[in-house]
Here is the input.
Amino acid sequence: MFDTTRTTGRLPGAIVGLVATGAALATAEVVGALLSRPASTPLLAVGDAVVDLTPQPVKQFAVDTFGTADKIALFVGMGMILAAAAALLGAAAARRRWIGFAGIAVFGAVGLAAALTRPGSGVLDTLPTLAGAVACGGVLVWLLRAASRPVPSAPDEHQPAPEGTRTAAEEPRGFDRRRFTLLAGAAAVASAGAGTVARTLASSSTGVGLAREDVSLPRPAFPAAPVPDGADLEIDGLASFFTSNDEFYRIDTALSIPRVDASTWSLRVHGLGARERVYTFADLLARDDLTERDITLACVSNPIGGEYVGNARWIGVPLATLLEEAGVRPPADGGPADQLVSRSEDGMTIGTPVADVMDGRDALIAIGMNGQPLPHEHGFPARMVVPGLYGYVSACKWIVDIELTTFDAFDAYWVPRGWSARGPIKTQSRIDTPRERATVPAGTTMLAGVAWAQHTGIDRVEVRVDDGEWRAATLAEEDTADTWRQWVHEWDAEPGEHRISVRATDRGGATQTSERAAVAPDGATGHHTIEVTVT
Here is the structure.
């Protein structure tokens, strides 16, 4: 005889847990895409919360270790943890169903908390997680039933088995492996397909009124001067003078690149000492002061010799002009605000000194990059670009709001996380060729690289081999003081192991210090040094 109790093996249970979790994530992605709230899906919401809560040393370790693939590394790590938890909970639920439901409740609560604590969140942001939890529970029950088998009743020791009946060992197990595999596989494929389609739609411009692909940039009223002959030395291994959009570094906290409808986008300027003004994208395109400038940007997380720096030709509206139109005065002229806080579509806040953007430098609300509308990953439809300041205090992407305030009244995103409130760029230089640990032939070898001191300019670059004297390198022609400058030095390389260092001196007479300092709180210092083997 058999009772109504049914049980499932641990391995099928683990598979059920994994498939049910996949269904939950896929359902959340679909609901998030339908609601145009992809950032409220549990995977992204929890990922954003992890980024916010991670201590600065751990963040820097991730950037140093994984570079621009740090977000991929985060998702891989989260996926591994989630998969392990799903398998364990599924195996436990195979014996006690309530454990599976308890696990769903716990993970659902985490997803809801993460979604509701994101900037600008509301009730609708809970729906992707709630829908995912319901889907997870439904698939869990459905597949556990498919994977379960009857449990034989305990035999009565005093009653012989009726003639013709089988013993428990002989009774059919009731688990159709082939059927279970088909059902679980179908559910997994359906989840993968639905999730992929939803994520693709969420990351595309489908449904956007004015997409990047539909934008044509007007000719700037104030074009950049032609790049001087000799500004790009065109040496193999040396970074080109202009960094292509595809190769330009991207360091930000956005796990999902915002897809902003330029037809509904606007930039609000308001706050202390300002008359509120609102500019649409059409307003910016139609302005008669569109300006084109060559500006090098650098990330404060860039280590000595790092690659988180790039040079591009930007088109935009002078930021100082927009502030003046709102009645803003710099602090030196009696203005009450010393900080402008820019806010991004995804809630990021960046604080910039008012004095720096109104001192005559080419600070822009940029709408174009290297002759094209801004790429989505670099801030379409508009971003801030301020030469002379690290990106974390100047380069707000997907910008939607500028508030005039004070440094005493408000700490932007990075300040409570251990970074300086003000981030002037430090003079830096880098060896691009030869690379670290390279082997080069004896004889004349070209040492080459770039140096930058935005808004100040580079006056001298020197190279030292081993413990020898510092020798002047040949500088490429300068475009502007806001761009990096290439350099080259001919070295008569002798066989052996050698250590090569570089340092730069800016137009203000400041020479890079040899003292090593970490990137936090306001940028790394030290000489870029490589080791090469000469044969």
